[in-house]
Amino acid sequence: MKKFFTVLGGMGTLATESYVRILDKRTPIHRDQDYLDYIVVNHATVPDRTTWILDHSKPDYNPALIEDIKQQSLLKPAFFVLICNTAHYAFDRLQAATDIPILNMLEETVKAIKDIKPDAKKVGLLATRGTIESGLYDHYITAAGYEEIKPTAEIVDQTEDLIYHDIKEAGHSNGQKYHELVRKMIEEEGADIVILGCTELSYAEEMDPETEYPVADSQSIIVDRSLERGLALRK
Q1: Residue 198 annotated as catalytic
Q2: Is 178 a catalytic residue?
Q3: From CA 137, how far away is CA 135, in angstroms rounded?
Q4: Beta bridge partners of residue 193, listed in sequence order
Q5: Confidence class for position 235, pLDDT limits 50, 70, 90
Q6: How far apart are CA 128 and CA 134, in angstroms?
Q7: Under a CB-based contact definition with an 8 Å cutoff, are residues 137 and 170 in contact?
Q8: For the residues of 114-162, what is the DSSP string, one character each?
Q9: Active-site residue among 198, 216, 222, 223?
Q10: pLDDT in tens, 46-76
Q11: How far is CA 47 from CA 63, 75, 87, 156, in A?
Q12: Which of 16, 20, 104, 125 is deepest in the core (most CB within 10 A)?
């Protein structure tokens, strides 16, 4: 197979399935051959990213991803897509493992805000504790000229309850919990738009779309960037 890309997934599996579903739905097709050529690496046993970020004595997720990147690089994909916001904590380390570009989900998400909510000044963030406490999104948000609104400790706890208990453990989303998180960030914390900075939250958005408040869905946005690049490979 030539002119394809590789999806580094499995973090978690439902979120990776969501990426693939959305990508295929958005691909303009009239026959089987119109779909994009890609490989999905569903590496479900990659250690938890947040656990290691908060405590470096825990299993490091990076060696597993670097192994995936090196293996896939032998096949020469045009680019990589990393389906996990929190895994971008060591983005430079991962990119250093290959000459093939890895799309930066965080960067692309913040860049898309100007199109989703042109008048936004305050950008809220919902994500894992690892992403929040490590300040993963901070540089991208402030460099773009926005004020960052981080979730309260209570909202972080509620976000992780949805991510870990409902989606990762039980295997399903909870629309009521998801919409309440977005509402709190907008109405109580004063954000103009909310970044969904975890692909499990993107899964929640796919299952129960937010229609009242504006969100910058990191996975939806990286799907669009993947689609643009994937279609360009055929020209």
Answers
A1: yes
A2: no
A3: 6
A4: 123
A5: confident
A6: 10
A7: no
A8: HHH-TT--EEEEE--HHHHHHTTTHHHHHHTTPEEEPPPHHHHHHHHII
A9: 198
A10: 999 999 999 999 999 999 999 999 999 999 9
A11: 10, 25, 10, 21
A12: 125
